[in-house]
Design goal:
- It is a single chain.
- This protein has about 240 residues and is α/β, with parallel strands linked by helices.
- The protein has a single domain (about 5-170, about 215-230), classed as Vaccinia Virus protein VP39 (Rossmann fold).
- It contains 8 helices and 7 strands, in the order H-H-E-H-E-E-E-H-E-H-E-H-H-H-E.
C-alpha cells in the first residue's frame, strides 16, 4: 500500500483523469458529510490502518486530535502482527478506518480492538468495498452487500447508525472496465499513459452520468463502497 504524499493528495482531491475519480470523490464527500456529527474540538480520533492519512485534514480542521495507526511503522501508533492496537483502553473518542476492513483476516480482533480503545459514547467510522476488483495489500478477503455489512458489524458489537452507499452498479462496472483498460495502456511506451488519461476523462464522465440516473434503491444495496457510522453496543450479538 502506498504511503506517499502523492497518494494522500490523490485520494483527498482525485482528478478526472484518475481511474477511480468518481469513487474517491464521492467517498471524500460522504466522509465530510458525517464528520460534523462526530468531530468536536478536543476529541481524539484514532485512524486504524491509516495508510497515507488522506482524510486527516477533514478531522483536524474541526479541532480533532488525529492519531494514525499502521502496521509498517509509519503511524503515530503501531499495530502488531496480530492486528492489535498499541493504544490504551478508552483512549479515543472516534475510531476511523477507511478501506481497511476488506483486508482484515481476523474480524473479531479488529472490531474488538476498535471497541476496546473507544471511550463511552465513542464512534466508529469505516468504509469498505461492496464490490471491487481483487486488490491484495497484502491480503484481500471480503466484499459485502449492505445488509451483510450491517449484520457483520452488529455481530461484532456495534450498532450501525448510518450507512452511505458510494457509487452504484452502472457506474462501477464502467470504472472497472476503465481500470483494466488503463492497466493495459500503461504498458505502451511513450503514449500509453496519455491515451489512458484521455480515456479516463471520457469514461469517468460516462460513469458520473450513469450514477446520476441510477435509482437510489439500486445503489443502496449494490454499491462499490459503503461508509458506515456505528457505535458500540453493550453486548456482542450471539
Amino acid at each position: 500500500m502506498m504511503h506517499t504524499t502523492a497518494d494522500r493528495l490523490r485520494r483527498l482531491n482525485p482528478r478526472l483523469f484518475d481511474t477511480d475519480w468518481l469513487v474517491l470523490r464521492d467517498l471524500r464527500r460522504a466522509i465530510a458529510s458525517l464528520a460534523p456529527d462526530v468531530a468536536r474540538q478536543g476529541a481524539v480520533a484514532l485512524d486504524y490502518g491509516c495508510g497515507s492519512r488522506p482524510y486527516e485534514a477533514i478531522f483536524t480542521s474541526a479541532g480533532v486530535r488525529y492519531l494514525g495507526a499502521d502496521l509498517d511503522g509509519h503511524g503515530d501508533l503501531a499495530i502488531d502482527a496480530a492486528g492489535r492496537l498499541q493504544a490504551a483502553d478508552a483512549s479515543a473518542d472516534l475510531v476511523l478506518s477507511f478501506q481497511v476492513l476488506e483486508h482484515v483476516r481476523d474480524l473479531g480482533t479488529y472490531f474488538g480492538e476498535a471497541k476496546r480503545v473507544l471511550r463511552p459514547n465513542g464512534w466508529l467510522m469505516l468504509s469498505t468495498h461492496g464490490t471491487w476488483l481483487f486488490h491484495p495489500h497484502p491480503e484481500d478477503h471480503r466484499r459485502w452487500t449492505r445488509p451483510g455489512l450491517i449484520a457483520e458489524i452488529a455481530g461484532h458489537g456495534f450498532e450501525v447508525v448510518e450507512c452511505i452507499a458510494v457509487v452504484g452498479p452502472l457506474a462501477w462496472t464502467t470504472i472497472m472496465r476503465l481500470t483494466c483498460a488503463c492497466y493495459a495502456l500503461r504498458k505502451i511506451p511513450l503514449i500509453g499513459r496519455a491515451i489512458g488519461s484521455l480515456l479516463s476523462i471520457v469514461m469517468n464522465t460516462r460513469a458520473w452520468i450513469e450514477d446520476v440516473i441510477t435509482p437510489e434503491w439500486v445503489r443502496n444495496d449494490n454499491a462499490c463502497v459503503y461508509l458506515v457510522l456505528a457505535r458500540p453496543t453493550s453486548e456482542v450479538c450471539a
